[in-house]
Design a protein that fits this description.
This is LysR family transcriptional regulator. The two termini are 35 Å apart. The protein is mostly helical. The protein has one domain. Helix content is 26%, strand content 0%.
Length: 86
């Protein structure tokens, strides 16, 4: 919140009581983000390890970050641009 308090930024997140900060709800669809996990191919974990990690990660995000089940994953809105390594 330092940049917000300095008047140099806005922030998105759960409301937190802080002197000098005004929180306003956003109208429309909630902000969403995609959470991914990656590991080196040479050390790729076994399927059970991935499944176990996924269960813990989903539970943690639901309990601490407000993640909810929204059905299908939203379509990625990425288009190639000059210079992209894709």
């Amino acid at each position: 919140l330092g940049l917000v308090l300095a008047g140099a930024a806005v922030a998105f997140g759960p409301k937190a009581e802080h002197p000098g900060v005004a929180w306003r709800p956003l109208l429309g669809s909630p902000i969403t983000c995609r959470v991914s996990t990656a590991w080196r191919v040479a050390t790729a974990p076994a399927g059970d390890m991935v499944a176990d990690f996924s269960v813990v990660a989903v539970r943690t995000l639901k309990e601490n970050a407000g993640m909810t089940d929204e059905g299908a994953v939203p379509a990625r809105r990425i288009s190639r641009r000059p210079g992209m390594l894709a």
